[in-house]
Amino acid sequence: MKNNSKDCALLTNIKHPFLENFSERFLIAASENARELEFNVNEIIFSRGERAEKFYLVMEGKIGLEIDAPDHPSVRVHTVDSNRVMGWSWLVPPYKWTVTARALKKTRVIALDAFVLHRYFKLHPEDGYLFCLRLLPVIAERLDETRLQLINLYDRYGD
Amino acid sequence: MIGMVIKMSNINQLFESDKNRENPHLPLPFIVEDRFQETPDTVSLTLVPENPGKIFTFSPGQFNMLYVFGVGECAISISGNAMNTQRLIHTVRSVGKISNALTNLKPGDTIGVRGPFGNGWPFAEARGKDLIIVAGGLGLAPLRPMIYEVLSHRDLYRRVEIVYGARTPRDLLYKEELQVWRKSSEIRLQVTVDIGDREWYGDIGMVTSRIPDIKFDPSNSIAFICGPEIMMHSVAEMLELRGLQSNNVYFSMERNMKCGMGQCGHCQFGPYFVCRDGPVFPYSKLEKFMSVKEV
Amino acid sequence: MRPENIQIGKKLILQRSDFSKLFIVLKDLGYTIIGPTIHNNAIVYDKLNSFEDLPIGITDVQGPGYYRLEKRGDQSFFGYNVGPQSWKKYIYPSHEKLWSAYRSKNGITFQEEKIDSTKYAFLGLRACDISAMALLDKVFIGQYTNQSYYKRRINSLYIAVHCGQAGNTCFCSSMGTGPRITNGYDILLTEILKSNEHKFLLEIGTDKGVTVASGLPLEVASEEDIMESEKIISRTISMMGRSINIENIHDILLNNINSDIWNHISQRCLSCTNCTMVCPTCFCSTTEEFSSLNGEIAEKWIRWDSCFNSAFTQLGKTSVRKSPVSRYRQWLMHKLVYWYDQFSTMGCVGCGRCITWCPVGIDLTEVVENIRNYQNSSKKIEEVIR
To answer: Using CA atoms in the order C146, C151, C157, C159, what is the torsion angle rounded to 10 degrees?
Structure first.
């Protein structure tokens, strides 16, 4: 994993669909402690159970979300592509990751600092509102998809 | 209309053509030449007619009624190459008594075949257009003949986008062919699974999650979709949101079939006999019935 | 009788006293005569040996879920309407073998079943029955022809009878399928019964009819006879027990397919399948397999089925039409809406059997009217349902 730190206005220098229409003030503030990170194939970005302190913008590559248990084979339940976002457990108690994120291809992400975001949104709730409106559809889509995965459409016969 | 007038022909006039004398209930014997285990519960059977001189022609999307001696008959889509008239391929998933018997056949066994029945994919209409093919699970079986058709006549179609999803990597059909198609520059194939494992480095998610990635010109495209009804419906909605008209989106529907020829009544979906007016329908015809429960 | 009078289109008279000669002629021509006869307190269609097997002097009294036979007080041969059976059991048997398959180490041989070659003469077909057969022709003859149906149809002889009375559940005139018969018969009879005479107006429809009529002692019908038969038909029309307004019914039912009204109007349906069994145009079937214990011979049979059966739309572990209400809706929509899309004609002939034989007395004509009224008004469903 290579760690390239850039100057504080990182977010003003990149393009990502999630950041569209956010104010310059937010982009500058959210760039504090933001890191651009690179992962090789199979490297782990975060593990289930660890403290969730980052919000990820996926710039390039593909990330697989897995769940592992001692008595169950590892199952990969979702993939996240470039131009998507990942990680909202930092907004939800107990603030721990619920899946393990592993790079399936050479992947580049930008990790935003959860504490920075929390602090900023408390001062500027209108940006917080915008952020939530942007994030909720991602979660809703994930929930809908998960439900369909659950009912196992392909096995509608059973026996 | 007040009152109803039944146009009754003179009884003796009705029964003239020779076509009337063929018995559509009688199967033809075919021999299993090859059996290939595609997934834990799905098998592809290669059949040859017992009468070697007989050729069998079909259109991609059509199906046969396959009969297993002493067990029964069920409707199975033809999944082979329509240009190969010597061999018939069917991909069967074991979900009931008859399909289970089909998956247990061995090379050398004889079965009965009736067909082909139904309409096929309207590929003549796809000429000169962007073609979108979306398959979920066993839905790839009736679409494979269509993919063969495209690859054999590639310049008749513009951009070709294929999306295929299965439950797990183990459940993918035609695994070797998928590898070849993934590498082909003639078509763009995306494969996704609902649940992956440590060996799967491809996409994970429902088929619908791949649709935002496909590129097509909505004013000049056609889509052929086959899979669980919920999936087909969601995909059609997503394509419609991007400007593709519902009369350019085609589904292959499935219903309980006993005769395959519109006479037993089982497969009716609204006014349509799925075996005879389908199984391929434009979404524009189905839309008003898909929102009605238990129709 | 001069031979030039025994022709298609001519109107002739057969006296009641000569009616037995019809049976003799038919038997000589090799026909097995099937006609109405009384069995278990109902008028059914079975083999007739002589005209005495007919329900002479009997009539039926019908209503929703109600059927009784009564004496008329006269000696008419055809003074009743239709019973629990339709003629479809003879041209489309309820249970029939399609083929046998023989398995050996060389493979499988399929052998078609020989079709019953009995020549049936159907005596007593009503307008609704004739219409129903014409509708079944559209289902079974065409791109795929059911060989058994086809052969039974062309080998049979059709002697139709004009109804001299209409029953309480009859509505053929508003369906446009009767009571007048204009086509589909070899011979057509209209029974004329007055205090001083009993005879039948006889019309010939086909060459087969000419052959039969040539063996009968017939006279040319008088103007009076013809007028009398017209009066009879008019009287039947005026007595029609029910009526149905089918104007625009295709679109009205289709537009209300999702409406809550279906729950109200069909909540008492038991899914007993009586209506589909007695209906002369219901054609749904299923197939059955049988095999010998040694595994060498297998048989494929076809059997009547009903869309009211819970497994009718089975798909794997579940059914598409799970609720009885959805199945009632399917039956009605098919009969009056989808039949039209499929065969360019509605599937109902107005015989009223489904009304009479429904154990809870659901009346198709009433159901249609309820939906029409509901559609036309802004009232609540409860206010609209009779």
So the answer is: 0
